[in-house]
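Chapter summary example: a protein plus adenosine monophosphate.
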Amino acid sequence: MRNDCVFCAILDGEVPCFKVYEDDTVLAYLDINPFADGHTLVIPKKHVTGILASDDELLAQVVSRVKKIARHIVETLGADGFNILQNNGEAAGQSVFHLHFHIIPRRKGEPLSFTPAKGDLGRLERMAARLHFEDGAGVL
Ligand code: AMP
Ligand code: ZN
């Protein structure tokens, strides 16, 4: 937990989130300003600033969760594909310095806009209810 880190505040329950998935290693929740419906962030529960600050074991664990969560999102939304976005450093567009992977569902013919949509709380709430899952819910 880092006091100045909004993602640590989410982990700590001080800031609310639209949760998609949680286990001992990661928390996944909807991006508050999504590039597309179902845009999800996967973060480790341990505060590390980015890929280079993470040990290989943690990174491997987080990536395995990213795969599992991405599969769940694609299947649940019937998406045609997805992008993984992972920014390191201010110059690369990183704005929150707690390691996170973006999972951005994609549909054929819909271009990806890197201009985030203004988060619509009702829409995010409905999407989180649709996407939320737990281990053992048939997702490997
Ligand atoms: P990055 O630019 O890769 O650092 O991405 C940070 C992302 O975190 C952005 O897409 C923000 O919209 C998202 N974000 C910031 N604060 C929150 C929050 N409280 N809940 C959900 N997403 C957030
Ligand atoms: Zn943090």
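Key point: Helices lie at 6-11, 56-77, 121-131.
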